[in-house]
Amino acid sequence: MSVLDRDKYKVALVGNPNVGKSVIFGLLTGKYVTVSNYPGTTVEVSRGICSGLGGGIEVVDTPGANSLIPLSEDESVTRDMLLEEYKKHVVQVVDAKNLRRGLFITTQLAEMGLPVVITLNMWDELLDRGMNIDVTVLQEKLRVPIIKTIATHRVGVSALFSSIPNAKVPNLYVDYGKVIEEGISKIEKILQGNTTVNERALAIMLLSGDEVLEEKLRRKFPDPAFVEIHSIRNSIQAHFGSPLSYVINIKRANFVDTLVKKVTLNLKKEKETHPITRGIFFYFLVPVASFFMGYKLMALLMYLISSRFSLNGGLIFMLPLVVGGISSLGFSAYLYLKEYKTKSTIAGALGRITMHPVAAFPLLVIILWIVYKLVGEFGAGTCVDFFEEKVFGRSLVPSGGFDLSISLPFIHKTYIFTHINFQGFNYYFGLLAQKLVDKDNIIFELFLNEQSGLVQVGLTYAIAIVFPIVGFFFLAFGIMEDSGYLPRLAVMVDKIFKRIGLNGKAVLPMVLGLGCDTMATLTTRILNTKKERIIATLLLALAIPCSAQLGVISSVLGRVSGIYFALYVFIICTQLLLVGYLSSKVLPGAPSDFLMEIPPFRMPKVSNILVKTFYRIHWFLKEAVPLFMVGTLALFVATKVGILSFVERMGAPITRNFLGLPAETTHGFILGFLRRDYGAVSIFKTLEEKGGSGGINPKQLLISLVVITLFIPCLANFLVMIKEQGAKTAFLMFAFIMPYSILIGGILRVILQQFP
Amino acid sequence: MAEPSQEEILELIWTLDEESGKVERDTLIKKIHLPIAEQILDTLISEDYVTISDNEVALTKKGIANARLIIRRHRLAERLLNDVLDVKEDVMDSSACKFEHILDEEVTASICTLLGHPVTCPHGKAIPAGECCEKANKEIRPVVMPLSDLKSGDDAKIAYIVTKYHGRLDRLSSMGLLPGVQIHLHQRQPTYVIQMGETQIALDTAIARDVYVRLV
């Protein structure tokens, strides 16, 4: 072993949740990991190479932990990584304004005897809040390099780089009192010389009742050692009324408190927003935005009920204006009294209003509406049409080209610059292919068949859908995530989610599911218990339509009538709650605690959101597009061999007799397994043809769309379910969902028959 | 302070008075079942606990004050034995009789607080209120209460955490929610949100019930 190799070490990033470890990881390695303003987004250890520091040093990013005596799966991931056998320097990322919680971990690192560099990240937010830390004093006490950083702006990163080789073991020693200290030294003796970190740290973990660690150590030490350790623990526990882990935590916290008091300075001068900005916000933005909100809410409501109640024109015109006025007055007055007078910042006011017990709900509806406008109408409508019809087109029919134009809103004028005579990729590809083979040739059909060609259907749909719908959704999701809105949403839905066996934390996978269920199923890992993960996975597969499907469904139903769309939403929500409630009763296990840090409301950074959206789309292309291709291929084979028509014939009686739908719609349901939205489109087209001149039958449409939403998830989602929950659970869910969705469709049919 | 035997008689007078509104000397003597009954009664009269006129026995001011305390101790003891210790009724009666002579004022107040200042004994008779009960009545909001009883906007310090779940205790303490930490309750609905230093934490009702705080 050369000298160089022996000196080589890895760098481990450690810190509380949501302090910016992933950002710093990205800066050190140039590798991107998803960064967000939602605690607990990193669920796996990511590794990268830092090319600075004299050549390839491995850097490891860990999930956020509040304590290195683990309480949850992600925390034990972090701790286990620190116990691994190799030399390592720890970069501890501390949220500068939460020094106390950071130093809590530092004491544990010191006990482990690991060399540490501390970065006080988000230094700007510390100063904004009128606080300061005396870094010199802190450095004197800890005797480790301490770097001030603002990672998102790359401030202090080079200083951090150069200080990593100088990492030292922090000079912190927590005295746990005579009784516990005696126990620690007894256990230390038992463990002596056989561990990767200091025995003291392990002894404290064992005294705290760390079972995961005990399991690990059992491989190294004989059983009698543990009998002895248990008896030591029990005899110490007898001295205290509360659990030992708690006693230890309190001692540690008191130690940290004393330290923090010595190094923090309170300037008492909280940075204030500029008076003009404040004025604009409180006197202009709030009244205007809340007027718009009230107006829009009322208009939406009237749209939903308009088909049932005939309202006269004046009322339709007046009512939204009145509600808008009331909302404007209410919000402005409330914010003026509560926030403007107390001199709070705009971010603070927004942070509070978005989880206000009353005001937050209309806000939520409006935010959803805006997201729908962006994703559902602009993304799934305008952009998809453009990509699908014009850019890709059809293999046999020219698309006719498109106009390059600009539309001005409000004055309804369109300026056309030029006409682009582009007939679509698929058309040109088709022309090319026809030079080689006949268009009835099987090879031509394999790629360019209108129903199941790999290029014409698989690739075209994957790309034409990915960019517009999923892209816009991820963009909107990124903004909600980075501004800190999502954790506030978690606060609002916690009570409802408790009923269905989840807690507020599950809002992240559930909302992400509205974009892509496959990706959302992967993020169920952030949930605490296995029970919660199973329920969330089931509900995602059953009742959360992805953005592609939702886009199609809402435009189709919206065209028919508002009340049917409202009914659709109502039915799906009811199913979500019902199945969630039942499964929370059936599955064993207690509900887990909802204890979540709410990060401050921040102005999202555009670059971060764009990068994040880019990586999510990238992931989607890499993971989902191959599955689309496989799915299309399977569809092609199934059509040619005749399996498809066989399954259709099998399913047709059920569709016709039980659901009361035309037998041809069976095709759509089967397609739904490959592409949920494509199934919906196919059904819509069938019903349209059947309806003929009499127009589409809205009841049939509603039934079929409810069934296809609840129906089995897409292939990609199903594969991820197998990967995350195991084949057995995934197939059980599959076996439940299929008959259940048809049953609900049947019940819905019977109910709808009662209303002429 | 009166002797145990004197206390028994004072107690008896109180109960008889409570039952029938008046106490006759002869009935009282009969009920005492002691050869020296008259002697004790005379001592009580001479020590100004009791007065007798026309064969009718009445407690003086001093007598009432004493009897009241004895009755209170006895009935609180009954409550304690019955409600908390789940003792059978016959044992309860005899034990309560012993308890009333040995409990001092402080312990009585503690028991009373522990039982939540009860107003009746297991037999349905009134328990005379003590100082602690009045105090509890006046201060509608107790000094230490669960976080779930705070009003939004309140500032408080965490006093202690009582929970059945080990994991919850560890999770709270590693987040920094420990005794002595000052918190500010932001809102109660839809979920509790507290501010602790620069950290905002959301927690559900189950946890909020386990965290006891002291108003500041």
From TrEMBL, chain A:
<dbReference type="GO" id="GO:0005886">
    <property type="term" value="C:plasma membrane"/>
</dbReference>
<keyword id="KW-0472">Membrane</keyword>
<feature type="transmembrane region" description="Helical">
    <location>
        <begin position="624"/>
        <end position="647"/>
    </location>
</feature>
<dbReference type="InterPro" id="IPR030389">
    <property type="entry name" value="G_FEOB_dom"/>
</dbReference>
<dbReference type="GO" id="GO:0015093">
    <property type="term" value="F:ferrous iron transmembrane transporter activity"/>
</dbReference>
<dbReference type="InterPro" id="IPR027417">
    <property type="entry name" value="P-loop_NTPase"/>
</dbReference>
<feature type="domain" description="FeoB-type G">
    <location>
        <begin position="8"/>
        <end position="170"/>
    </location>
</feature>
<dbReference type="Pfam" id="PF02421">
    <property type="entry name" value="FeoB_N"/>
</dbReference>
<dbReference type="InterPro" id="IPR006073">
    <property type="entry name" value="GTP-bd"/>
</dbReference>
<keyword id="KW-0812">Transmembrane</keyword>
<dbReference type="Pfam" id="PF17910">
    <property type="entry name" value="FeoB_Cyto"/>
</dbReference>
<feature type="transmembrane region" description="Helical">
    <location>
        <begin position="349"/>
        <end position="372"/>
    </location>
</feature>
<feature type="transmembrane region" description="Helical">
    <location>
        <begin position="458"/>
        <end position="479"/>
    </location>
</feature>
<feature type="transmembrane region" description="Helical">
    <location>
        <begin position="280"/>
        <end position="305"/>
    </location>
</feature>
<feature type="transmembrane region" description="Helical">
    <location>
        <begin position="563"/>
        <end position="582"/>
    </location>
</feature>
<dbReference type="InterPro" id="IPR041069">
    <property type="entry name" value="FeoB_Cyto"/>
</dbReference>
<feature type="transmembrane region" description="Helical">
    <location>
        <begin position="317"/>
        <end position="337"/>
    </location>
</feature>
<keyword id="KW-1133">Transmembrane helix</keyword>
<dbReference type="InterPro" id="IPR050860">
    <property type="entry name" value="FeoB_GTPase"/>
</dbReference>
<dbReference type="InterPro" id="IPR005225">
    <property type="entry name" value="Small_GTP-bd"/>
</dbReference>
<feature type="transmembrane region" description="Helical">
    <location>
        <begin position="729"/>
        <end position="752"/>
    </location>
</feature>
<dbReference type="Pfam" id="PF07664">
    <property type="entry name" value="FeoB_C"/>
</dbReference>
TrEMBL record, chain B:
<dbReference type="InterPro" id="IPR038157">
    <property type="entry name" value="FeoA_core_dom"/>
</dbReference>
<dbReference type="InterPro" id="IPR008988">
    <property type="entry name" value="Transcriptional_repressor_C"/>
</dbReference>
<dbReference type="InterPro" id="IPR050536">
    <property type="entry name" value="DtxR_MntR_Metal-Reg"/>
</dbReference>
<dbReference type="GO" id="GO:0003700">
    <property type="term" value="F:DNA-binding transcription factor activity"/>
</dbReference>
<keyword id="KW-0408">Iron</keyword>
<dbReference type="InterPro" id="IPR036421">
    <property type="entry name" value="Fe_dep_repressor_sf"/>
</dbReference>
<protein>
    <recommendedName>
        <fullName>Ferrous iron transporter FeoA-like domain-containing protein</fullName>
    </recommendedName>
</protein>
<dbReference type="InterPro" id="IPR001367">
    <property type="entry name" value="Fe_dep_repressor"/>
</dbReference>
<feature type="domain" description="Ferrous iron transporter FeoA-like">
    <location>
        <begin position="145"/>
        <end position="215"/>
    </location>
</feature>
<dbReference type="GO" id="GO:0046983">
    <property type="term" value="F:protein dimerization activity"/>
</dbReference>
<dbReference type="InterPro" id="IPR007167">
    <property type="entry name" value="Fe-transptr_FeoA-like"/>
</dbReference>
<dbReference type="Pfam" id="PF04023">
    <property type="entry name" value="FeoA"/>
</dbReference>
<comment type="subunit">
    <text>Homodimer.</text>
</comment>
<dbReference type="GO" id="GO:0046914">
    <property type="term" value="F:transition metal ion binding"/>
</dbReference>
<dbReference type="InterPro" id="IPR022689">
    <property type="entry name" value="Iron_dep_repressor"/>
</dbReference>
<dbReference type="GO" id="GO:0005737">
    <property type="term" value="C:cytoplasm"/>
</dbReference>
<dbReference type="Pfam" id="PF02742">
    <property type="entry name" value="Fe_dep_repr_C"/>
</dbReference>
<dbReference type="InterPro" id="IPR036388">
    <property type="entry name" value="WH-like_DNA-bd_sf"/>
</dbReference>
